[in-house]
Automatic annotation (TrEMBL), chain A:
The keyword Ion transport applies. NCBIfam families: ATPsyn_F1gamma. The gene is atpG. This is ATP synthase gamma chain. It comes from Piscibacillus halophilus. F-type ATPases have 2 components, CF(1) - the catalytic core - and CF(0) - the membrane proton channel. CF(1) has five subunits: alpha(3), beta(3), gamma(1), delta(1), epsilon(1). CF(0) has three main subunits: a, b and c. Produces ATP from ADP in the presence of a proton gradient across the membrane. The gamma chain is believed to be important in regulating ATPase activity and the flow of protons through the CF(0) complex.
UniProtKB/TrEMBL annotation, chain B:
It is a peripheral membrane protein. It comes from Piscibacillus halophilus. This is ATP synthase epsilon chain. Residues 103-147 form a coiled coil. F-type ATPases have 2 components, CF(1) - the catalytic core - and CF(0) - the membrane proton channel. CF(1) has five subunits: alpha(3), beta(3), gamma(1), delta(1), epsilon(1). CF(0) has three main subunits: a, b and c. Produces ATP from ADP in the presence of a proton gradient across the membrane. Residues 100-144 form the ATP synthase epsilon subunit C-terminal domain. CDD domains: F1-ATPase_delta (cd12152). One of its GO terms (cellular component) is proton-transporting ATP synthase complex. Keywords: ATP synthesis, Cell membrane, CF(1), Coiled coil, Hydrogen ion transport, Ion transport, Membrane, Transport. InterPro entries: ATP_F1_dsu/esu_C_sf (IPR036794), ATP_synth_F1_dsu/esu (IPR001469), ATP_synth_F1_dsu/esu_N (IPR020546), ATP_synth_F1_esu_C (IPR020547), ATPsynth_dsu/esu_N (IPR036771). It holds the Pfam family ATP-synt_DE_N.
Length: 286, 147
């Protein structure tokens, strides 16, 4: 049996770990709150841009643009949104597993796809598993601005426009609630499935021409999809970390209980032994 | 508010425009105005209530919003204007009111962009980016200084 002092030490170290995890839980809870607000603030922009894109692309105006057309897929780009730090439960592993399985299933050689990881964990995963990376972004703050994601988003859109890739997919954790997130895969480009139903489409005048407008509008639209996914992913990250930290705190509590029990047992055993030694000594003197 | 009052009193509807400016980081401005002037890529556009539906991309410029003889300004970069008879929506990647502009930051950005323009004459992507950055910085400085 471990000595009294060993058990005491373990209890103390578990207690300080518990303090850290419960602090992290609270921090994540407040970050989650903020991230949800950010995601909400983004909604009006997304809805409006969707409406305009749907009006232009859905109307029988004959407007056309390479981003609206599927072409034979020679190379696919994947954006994957992960966090910079771990300790977020299954947040990163789920999304990376989904990506890895997809890549294994769909592609036979490394020339057929490329990955644009966001977040350190995603970048390290790709490096370790030999997935080709064209560009990565790390060190995004917990409340990212559009400007911070714009670079990789426009880069990805440019790859598509230049014909380097023929499809662009994004993998991220969709935020459902604080305890539930779902790995989601979305096709960003080409924009073939623009939902035009159920929206009140307006027929606009265009200044200058529709094609010109699509040229600037569609890249912006694609970039906003990426940004929306990032905001969603951030909310999921904080939620996932919060849940992970809560269960870590609970587990630490259980561990402390168990350790305290064996500490008391060991203490009792030591006392019993001492008494029996004393009484044995006294008996020997008689 | 005036807009709603007018409508409530006499059903007069086409006196003002509802203007909303939305960016990915949230709504930047919401209000009703008598006239909106924007600089589109094809030229200056003045929008009055009752305008036909229109979509036009905007340059990096100032949006002018007129109400009761007063003009409000807004710096926009990279955006669109969507016009409906009573509603004007500006979708911009960034939009700031003069009071929100960080002039020092804009000045630093301007210097940086100028330096980069001097250095990177050869490479066209960087050149283009630096040019855009310069335009944004100059636009912000102009708007915050002139009001």
């Amino acid at each position: 049996m471990a000595s009294l002092r060993d058990i005491k030490n373990r209890i103390n170290s578990t207690k300080s770990t518990q303090k850290i995890t419960s602090a992290m839980e609270m921090v994540s809870a407040s970050k989650l709150n903020k991230a949800e607000q950010n995601a909400k603030k983004f909604v009006p922009y997304m809805e409006k841009i969707q409406e305009v894109v749907a009006s232009i692309a859905g109307g029988n105006t004959g407007a056309d643009h390479p981003m609206l057309q599927s072409r034979p897929v020679k190379k696919t780009g994947y954006i994957v949104i992960t966090s910079d730090r771990g300790l977020a439960g299954p947040y990163n592993s789920n999304v990376l597993r989904a990506l890895y399985q997809k890549v294994q299933k769909e592609h036979s050689s490394k020339d057929e796809y490329t990955v644009l990881p966001i977040g350190k964990i995603g970048r390290e995963f790709c490096k370790k598993n030999g997935l080709p990376i064209v560009k990565d972004v790390t060190g995004l703050p917990d409340q990212p601005d559009f400007a911070e994601i714009k670079e990789i988003a426009s880069y990805a859109v440019k790859l598509f426009a230049d014909g380097e890739i023929d499809e662009l997919h994004i993998f991220y954790n969709h935020f459902i609630s604080a305890i539930s997130q779902e790995v989601t895969q979305k096709k960003v480009l080409p924009l073939t499935d623009i939902d035009t139903e159920g929206k009140n489409l307006t027929s606009y005048e265009y200044e200058p021409e529709e094609e010109e407008i699509l040229k600037t509008l569609l890249p912006q639209y694609a970039e906003s999809i990426v940004y929306g996914a990032l905001l969603d992913g951030k909310a999921s990250e904080h939620a996932s970390r919060m849940t992970a930290m809560r269960s870590a705190t609970d587990n630490a509590g259980e561990l402390i209980d168990d350790l305290t029990l064996s500490y008391n047992r060991a203490r009792q055993a030591a006392i019993t032994q001492e008494i029996s030694e004393i009484s044995a000594g006294a008996a020997a003197l008689e | 508010m005036t807009h709603r009052l007018l409508r409530a009193q006499g059903g007069v509807s086409l006196k003002t425009l509802n203007v909303s400016v939305v960016t990915p980081d949230g709504p930047a401005l919401e209000g009703s105005y008598e006239m909106v002037s924007v600089r589109a890529e094809s030229g200056e556009l003045g929008i009055l209530p009752g305008h036909i539906p229109l979509v036009a991309p905007l340059t990096i410029s100032a949006v002018r919003l007129k109400k009761d003889g007063q003009t409000d300004y807004l710096a926009v970069s990279g955006g669109f204007v969507e016009v409906r008879p009573e509603q004007v929506t500006i979708l911009a990647q960034a939009a700031e009111q003069p009071s929100e502009i960080d002039v020092d930051r804009a000045k630093r950005a301007k210097e940086r962009a100028e330096q980069r323009l001097n250095l990177a004459k050869s490479e066209d992507i960087d050149h283009r980016r630096a040019e855009l950055a310069l335009q944004r910085a100059v636009n912000r400085i102009d708007i915050s200084e002139n009001r």
